[in-house]
Amino acid sequence: MSSTKNNMSKIQKKVKSKQLMIGAENKEIEFSNEPQNILAILNYGLLNGIKTEILIDRVNEITSLLDLILPNKSYCFLKFQSCDEAAKVLTELNGIKLWTDGYPVLMSFCKSIPKYQDYLNEEPSGLIILLDFVTDEIEKKLIALLKWDECKMKNRQVQHFGYEFIYGQNTVDYRKPLERKLPPECDELWTIFDTKCPKFKGFRPDQLTVNKYERGSGIPAHCDTHSVFEDPIISLSLSASIVMEFKDPVNGKHCSILLPKKSLLIMSSESRYGWLHGITPKNSDIVKTKHNLMTVQQRELRYSFTFRKLRIPPSCDCKFPLLCDIQSKIVNEQNSNNDHEVDQKLAAKLELENVHNVYNEIGNHFSETRHSAWPNVENFIMSLIEGSILLDAGCGNGKYLNINDKITKLGFDRSSTLLQVCNERNFQVFQSDCLQIPIINDSIDACISIAVIHHLATHDRRVQAIREMLRVLRKKGQALIYVWAKDQQKDNKKTRYLLQHQSKDIEKVNKLPEMAILNIDEEKIELPIHKNRTQFKSSNMLVPWKLKQKEIPEEQHKIFLRYYHVFEDGELENLCKECGNVEIVRSYYDQGNHCVILKKL
């Protein structure tokens, strides 16, 4: 009995501490000791890896959840129909670990919370969903005509009719029509369409892409090329429902739209031209029931029939230049899973404090742990023809400058400590920043960037780094880029990073707080601190490094925090495509890293 009381006392102390921190940050949040119909989860939110499906399922085992409010913070709120229901959840779950790799959740009643903007209701204009668009008979007929003997994507199968849809560019070549036209079985859809959607009466597509989505698969956020396709673009969901995510890249607004089985999605005007849309790969979706309660819906095998009408010749004068291929070269921005980056003006200073200065401090110790070349990187370097010039952009201790004696190798790095190691090894190196490489245009045969770009703190800076490599490459020159992947487990196999033994040093590092508040140029930046040898919970975070020094007692060893942006699946490829004038020769996943080989066109 006494141990239970002690445990509850510890939980209450932690709750009180969190209340003080959150209350100091936002005065509109008023906590209460008396039951209220709103519960705050004080230590989990969008910024630190909340597992919403697990949370909702667990809460719904106790009572019905009315709403889950997720501000862009490390806390969130649960709303119930009554105070008694909220009290039941707090009694059963407060201080309980809800997922195996997490901490016990800390809960508190809330008397009032701010009026957070409800992004889920902020749909883009021009978005239309027609429910029960087709009958069961038509659905079976359409699915039956498909033959899955051709194109298989990474996580789905596709078929094209009329014109082949070019993935990555999100376009078609109107000069190369396919012999296979749209199936005549689709003709009866347009009679239904004219009746149910008179606004676009007469719309007749000439291109169809059919996707077969296995459970758990998705598609990266994208915007179909403006100049090639007319307005609207429509998509029919068959066999199962899905939640599609929409994001406005201008202001970060987003919404989650349920597409029920047999429904027709119509994207026109703003939803067509100004927002990105995609499907997050996962096994379930959070939806609301007909009684407006939150629940988790398991995904199933789904088919989507996406119909488009080509605009020939291509042209566009829309009001959404950010995603327009005619008015701007910025396309295919990757959805960041609600994980916001730092402000542009603070990015360089954050990198200086939590990347460059850190590596100057830990450089020698870091070098001792970096001695083996990655096999695929070594193969790339060995494949270069005799006499080639290779540039290692961010060479570190130069471990890749010792490969292939038949080529000329140059390297640069920002860290003077690591460059000193290179000089001691007689490598040809110089100090530079990857955003401004002091080498003339079109002068390098090949370039490698291994574990560098993920230290850049904004999307634009990461794009700039790739553009600089392409600038110094000769025509048809190739670049190999490695970045740390957010997902450290592929095909149910853990990477070496996750499997590596957790030493006492790692255990001590992992006792750091969940969040760090950095004071950068009189501005405060809040970032989650990664727990070493675990899955990443956020895209932008601080990764600890414990500096071992023989002459200093172990308890005095310093811990440094390095900034990382870990990459979602497909994000690196989209960055490269955004640079233009490039061909992706190969894209692969290598022991917890996303990797691409580029060719300059």
From TrEMBL:
Residues 204-311 form the Fe2OG dioxygenase domain. Coiled coil: none annotated. Its cofactor is Fe(2+). GO terms for molecular function: S-adenosylmethionine-dependent methyltransferase activity; tRNA (5-carboxymethyluridine(34)-5-O)-methyltransferase activity; tRNA binding. The keyword Methyltransferase applies. GO terms for biological process: tRNA methylation; tRNA wobble uridine modification. Keywords: Methyltransferase, RNA-binding, Transferase, Zinc. It holds the Pfam family 2OG-FeII_Oxy_2. GO terms for cellular component: cytoplasm; nucleus. InterPro entries: AlkB-like (IPR027450), AlkB-like_sf (IPR037151), AlkB_tRNA_MeTrf/Diox (IPR051422), Methyltransf_11 (IPR013216), Nucleotide-bd_a/b_plait_sf (IPR012677), Oxoglu/Fe-dep_dioxygenase_dom (IPR005123), RBD_domain_sf (IPR035979), SAM-dependent_MTases_sf (IPR029063). Signal peptide: none annotated. This is Fe2OG dioxygenase domain-containing protein. It comes from Chironomus riparius. The lineage of its organism: Eukaryota, Metazoa, Ecdysozoa, Arthropoda, Hexapoda.
